[in-house]
């Protein structure tokens, strides 16, 4: 039994394996072709790679550019001015706000509010829709100011940024943000006040997010927390998490030791780092009787609301600092010895995005990009299988499988990579 997967970024399908009319297994088919970004960057200068990888995803372009720049800076020993780091962090947070609000508003809310369609939801809740649109438009504007444009940003480079924003543009953002935060809290109050009754509980599943010993909510790091156990990103992606190819998908799947699935993204970040959210955000979430741990992936929208609110509050502080600072933006890339390994990870809106490059005299020899959606695909199937196994293979079972996928907010296009093919002749 097959069904098209809708309200996700990219093209995919749901394959329900039935036996005697009852569900036995659920698989998410990814049918898009690999786009070979890991091969496109080979042989190119590291400076060019930062721009190229921003095209991997239209929703998370900042995350791709930022983690590439951070990886190269770390292994090349390049120091970045603290205020430039703050500027890049602000751009990344604006992306987080935009992505989360798009997901909750367009993908989650119709089902949460029990509307038959998105159009029906708009008709029933015009003011809530205006609040969401106001926040989205401001986040787009912030990305243009900090990143040059609101998608596939063009302002991050190794060692800094190409252009520091005009103070007048920053001041305009700063004047508007209080109104934007007010609009967001109205939108968030509506979302968090709804308590869905038909929620699927997760099977016991691993949760993975970036780890930092500081008080900062997960952002950039070279360490990973797997259910509280901390590993370097190199160890986790080399020894703990293993990539696999499956017959029904063109995307790689990842499992712990090749066996157990795990979840990355806002669900895992919220559950593992809730105490690092600002007190204002935690008080707001708890006012509506939400607090960790979230037990169902279908409650991921709660984490997205909390993260977007926390990002807006942080941006408010950043903007106040920007307007009174004198930012310097000077940097240069150094040559490197053969075989330098450059790797780092960032918390993209959908979860951990890991980049690893081997560089020889400034040029990339090997590239490995592990995307959030690829890491979540095995968990999507495992959770959906546990939720509807033994049920009748009908439209209601398909609807549950769709809701589980949408809760992950999969960016299917970004997940499509390929392992080298080896042909062995006997």
Automatic annotation (TrEMBL):
Mg(2+) binds at residues 38, 369, 417. Fe cation binds at residues 60, 414. Keywords: Iron, Magnesium, Metal-binding, Nickel, Oxidoreductase. GO terms for molecular function: ferredoxin hydrogenase activity; nickel cation binding. Its cofactor is Ni(2+); Fe cation. Ni(2+) binds at residues 57, 60, 411. The keyword Magnesium applies. It comes from the Archaea. This is Ni/Fe hydrogenase subunit alpha. It comes from Ignisphaera aggregans. The lineage of its organism: Archaea, Thermoproteota, Thermoprotei, Desulfurococcales, Desulfurococcaceae.
């Amino acid at each position: 039994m097959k069904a098209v997967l809708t309200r996700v970024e990219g093209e995919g399908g749901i394959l329900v394996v039935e036996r005697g009319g009852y569900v036995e297994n659920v698989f998410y088919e990814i049918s898009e072709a690999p786009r070979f970004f890991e091969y496109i960057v080979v042989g190119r200068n590291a400076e060019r790679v930062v721009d190229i990888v921003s095209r991997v995803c239209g929703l998370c372009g900042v995350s791709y550019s930022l983690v590439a720049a951070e990886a190269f800076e770390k292994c090349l020993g390049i120091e970045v001015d603290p205020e430039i780091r703050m500027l890049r962090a602000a751009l990344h947070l604006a992306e987080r706000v935009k992505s989360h609000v798009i997901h909750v508003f367009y993908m989650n809310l119709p089902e949460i509010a029990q509307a038959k369609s998105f159009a029906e939801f708009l008709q029933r809740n015009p003011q809530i829709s205006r609040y969401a649109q106001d926040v989205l438009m401001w986040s787009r504007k912030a990305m243009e100011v900090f990143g040059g444009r609101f998608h596939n940003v063009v302002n991050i480079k190794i060692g800094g940024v190409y252009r520091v924003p005009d103070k007048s543009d920053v001041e305009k953002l700063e004047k508007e943000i209080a109104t934007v935060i007010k609009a967001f809290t109205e939108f968030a109050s509506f979302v968090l006040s709804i308590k869905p009754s038909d929620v699927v509980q997760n099977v016991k599943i691993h949760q993975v997010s970036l780890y930092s010993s500081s008080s900062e909510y997960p952002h950039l790091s070279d360490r990973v927390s797997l259910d509280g156990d901390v590993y370097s990103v190199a160890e986790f992606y080399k020894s703990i998490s293993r990539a696999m190819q499956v017959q029904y998908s063109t995307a790689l799947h990842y499992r712990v030791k090749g066996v157990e699935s795990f979840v990355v993204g806002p669900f895992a970040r919220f559950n593992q780092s809730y105490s690092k959210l600002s007190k204002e955000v935690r008080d707001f979430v708890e006012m509506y009787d939400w607090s960790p741990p979230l037990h169902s992936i279908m409650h991921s929208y709660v984490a997205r609301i909390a993260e977007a609110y926390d990002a807006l509050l942080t941006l408010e502080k950043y903007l106040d600092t920007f307007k009174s600072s004198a930012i310097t933006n000077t940097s240069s890339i150094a040559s490197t010895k053969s075989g330098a390994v450059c790797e780092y990870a960032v918390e993209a809106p959908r979860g951990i995005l890991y980049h690893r490059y081997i560089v020889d005299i400034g040029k990339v020899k090997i590239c490995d990009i592990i995307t959030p959606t690829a890491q979540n695909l095995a968990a999507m199937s495992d959770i959906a299988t546990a939720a509807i196994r033994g049920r009748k293979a009908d439209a209601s079972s398909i609807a549950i499988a769709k809701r589980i996928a949408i809760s992950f907010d999969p960016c299917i296009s970004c997940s499509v990579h390929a392992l080298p093919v080896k042909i062995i002749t006997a």
